[in-house]
Amino acid sequence: MNAYTYDVVVIGAGPAGENVADRAVKGGLTAAIVERELVGGECSYWACMPTKALLRSAAARRAALSVPGVPVGELDPAAVLRRRDEFAAHWADDGQVGWLEQAGIALHRGTGRIVADRVVQVGDDRLTARHAVVVATGTSAFVPDIPGLRDISPWTSREAAAATSVPGRLAIIGGGVVATEMATAFAALGSSVTLLARSGVLGGFEPFAGERVVESLRESGVTVRLGAAVTAARRDPGGTVQLMLADDTVVAADEVLVATGRTPNTEDGAFITVDDTMRANDWLYAVGDVNGRALLTHQGKYQARLAGDAIVARAHGKPVRHVDAGVVPQVVFTDPEIASVGLTAAAAAEAGLRTRVVDYDLGAVAGASLHADGYRGHARMVVDEDRSVIVGFTLAGSDVAELLHAATIAIVGEIPLDRLWHAVPAYPTVSEVWLRLLENYPL
Ligand SMILES: Cc1cc2nc3c(=O)[nH]c(=O)nc-3n(C[C@H](O)[C@H](O)[C@H](O)COP(=O)(O)OP(=O)(O)OC[C@H]3O[C@@H](n4cnc5c(N)ncnc54)[C@H](O)[C@@H]3O)c2cc1C
Ligand SMILES: NC(=O)c1ccc[n+]([C@@H]2O[C@H](COP(=O)([O-])OP(=O)(O)OC[C@H]3O[C@@H](n4cnc5c(N)ncnc54)[C@H](O)[C@@H]3O)[C@@H](O)[C@H]2O)c1
């Protein structure tokens, strides 16, 4: 048994774990991180980065197709997969291990388990934390208990993100973010895709988001079946998978991607409840996916920065800052892209706010019509009438991702609408939608 003592011990070296350890060290504490797979976590090798690399080439091609005068060839799937490999660092973590070293964070490889208050066991290593243990173990794909499904060795997001070839027929179970992004990616790469959504698509977003994505997926040849519940699965000796549906129809596929949500990487399979400093008890913190607050890299990193600072502040008896959990930006990299922050109209009404909803056709903005011929898009602003501030903003359209941060700043900054009138968008940009929305909201 090797005994080590650090100020902070972090379990899980994904984006959240890396950031909390870094913040603790920058605050003058010592920190160790425990990792059982690759330093960098799900996001770097099997989630954000490789999936966005799979999507980007097709998006660039669509952009070229949307204006005249640009010769456009076919997508080269092998080249797309090669570029994806680069973004996944060929599933080697040397680069990130080098970063840990220069940041002054000790690495212990293996599975970490909390065996006593402030004590983490990793193989033969016993790590004791003077100030805090931080759980940053993330989530894994949830595979529902459908008869036969596990036996067919379905893809989860990991196999999709790291695919070495493009299946001829891909069936996707789920209607969330992974399902829609991977339907977009694999359809563009040449798969014949069937998306089976038990209920709607992109639930939790403004309804127009899911509607536009479904419309566009169908236009690009994807079979989208709504209200489609898979009841059983089996693989033929020839390798073809048959998915049986509740309406007695059968869907045949070469691969099946299960995209039905996530399960926290904790021993009891439950998310860890934390307060707004990410603390579960006086020595235990949980950051990132594993606390279930917002399963997004940027939110996990934000929590990690604040938790790291809170650990340092408490170590020195100083006041701590709290996470402002209400305003979560997210981009879904489908076609059209969906960019949203804050509350949907429905969520604002449910929260009891007196709201006014302002909609605008993004295609009617001069900058958008220049951006792409026949630009189709939509913007929605949700205003809290009592405070005259924006509480929610959603965009659907090509390349709207980079427009989102203006909305995040307006919401987080609680900028009164009469002040926002003086934030003049440049002409002719897509951002002029801000002016149009304000014109449609007479003060
Ligand atoms: C397909 C897909 C695409 C996504 N795309 C985006 C995107 O574009 N943008 C975005 O913001 N979010 C995206 N997400 C979500 C994002 O991946 C997660 O929110 C993010 O990875 C969470 O970071 P984390 O550090 O909490 O956990 P993780 O990245 O999951 O890292 C946790 C780490 O802990 C390790 N670990 C677990 N248990 C132990 C243990 N007991 N001992 C030691 N180590 C352990 C794991 O091996 C892992 O390395 C995507 C998710 C998926 C599935
Ligand atoms: N661009 C991004 O920011 C991005 C991309 C991918 C994933 N993510 C994050 O990763 C997380 C996981 O994504 P996800 O798509 O797996 O989850 P999700 O929660 O977005 O969607 C899950 C889908 O599966 C369906 N479902 C759940 N249980 C089912 C069952 N038993 N049978 C059939 N369908 C079922 C749900 O109705 C829903 O449509 C999300 O929280 C998301 O925020 C983010």
TrEMBL record:
Essential cofactor(s): FAD
E.C. number(s) listed in UniProt: 1.8.1.4
Alphabetic keyword roster: FAD, Flavoprotein, NAD, Nucleotide-binding, Oxidoreductase
Source taxon at top rank: Bacteria
Domain Pyridine nucleotide-disulphide oxidoreductase dimerisation: 328-434
Amino-acid positions noted as binding NAD(+) in the UniProt annotation, renumbered to this chain: 174-181, 261
Cysteines paired by S-S bonds: 43-48
Family: Belongs to the class-I pyridine nucleotide-disulfide oxidoreductase family.
PANTHER family in the record: DIHYDROLIPOYL DEHYDROGENASE, MITOCHONDRIAL, DISULFIDE OXIDOREDUCTASE
Designated name of the protein: Dihydrolipoamide dehydrogenase
Organism: Catenuloplanes indicus
